[in-house]
Design brief:
mainly alpha
């Protein structure tokens, strides 16, 4: 199932590029390719960091998840986000981990935990970016309030027991919230990935000759990605992310440049996913072959 989702993800990526090729081609005609290559490298670092944390979550549960093989599960499973439905990146990653010998329950819990902490970090990044760039600072204040509330809620034994009882009553199984310190640590570990994604987009903007501060880009990038994730059913947040990005960045760099930047940035991160899936799969295959020979 994980492989099928990965293949389907590639098909939807190709379809997206074909249907929007006129827009992408026009955008690429005005781009300096050297900064664009740099943005791909930085984006690769961001996504690899998220994948490394996910692998750590699998290993911390006592499973044999060699990093080289597990990163191929992560990257190939990531391609599921381009399949309509919203749930496929979770299923893709988890099922590939199951195929690799991880218990199904642990694979799904680790994948869900990874996504929640990743986008919790995106929310924090939005708050940091809004205050640092003084762009809608009220959002930063709201995020701070949310962090404080989450800290006390996750530390409340009575609240945790109520959630467990509700899960048992509704779903027939025990639902456990993550320990407070562990959740906040994982969220903090993911924040550098959002800084790198924002830096990648800033470098892409430089390829257009556009200039936008990294603090503002942190706000714009994190919020647009978060919106694309929240709108369920849109494959990879395609269209949603670009619309939010254009609306937020257009006032600084101009709407035409913002539209082009949003499209080319999408191509950059599609390239990151495809390159990561291809390279990690090749490395995992070489690792298995080497082990078999010995």
């Amino acid at each position: 199932m994980g492989v099928l989702i990965g293949v389907s993800g590639v098909a939807f990526v190709v379809r997206t590029l074909v249907t929007r090729w006129d827009d992408v081609r026009e955008s690429f005609s005005r781009v300096d390719l050297l900064p664009l290559l740099a943005s791909v490298v930085i984006g690769q670092l961001a996504m690899t960091l998220i994948g490394a944390v996910w692998v750590h979550l699998l290993q911390s549960r006592g499973h044999d998840a060699p990093r080289r093989r597990a990163m191929s599960w992560y990257y190939v499973g990531q391609l599921g986000k381009y399949v309509p439905g919203g749930i496929w990146p979770i299923v893709g990653r988890a099922e590939l981990a199951v195929r690799g010998g991880v218990a199904r329950g642990d694979a799904y819990r680790a994948t869900g935990y990874s996504l929640v902490s990743t986008y919790a970090a995106a929310t924090v990044a939005v708050g940091i970016g809004s205050v640092a760039s003084w762009t809608y600072p009220g959002i930063g204040a709201a995020v701070l309030v949310g962090v404080i509330v989450a800290w006390f809620v996750l530390g409340s034994a009575s609240f945790r027991s109520r959630i467990a009882a509700l899960g048992a009553r509704v779903g027939g199984r025990t639902v456990s919230l993550p320990p407070r310190r562990e959740f906040f640590t994982l969220t903090a570990v993911h924040i550098p990935a959002w800084v790198l994604m924002s830096l990648s987009t800033s470098v892409t903007a430089h390829a257009f000759g556009a200039h936008i501060s990294i603090a503002r880009m942190l706000f714009v990038t994190s919020l647009s990605w978060l919106a694309g994730f929240v709108v369920v059913g849109v494959p990879g947040g395609i269209g949603v992310r670009e619309s939010i990005f254009t609306a937020l960045a257009g006032g600084t760099i101009g709407t035409p440049v913002a539209v082009s930047l949003a499209l080319v940035s999408r191509v950059v991160f599609i390239s990151v996913d495809l390159i990561g899936a291809a390279v990690s799969s090749a490395v995992a295959g070489a690792t298995r072959s080497g082990s078999a020979e010995h």
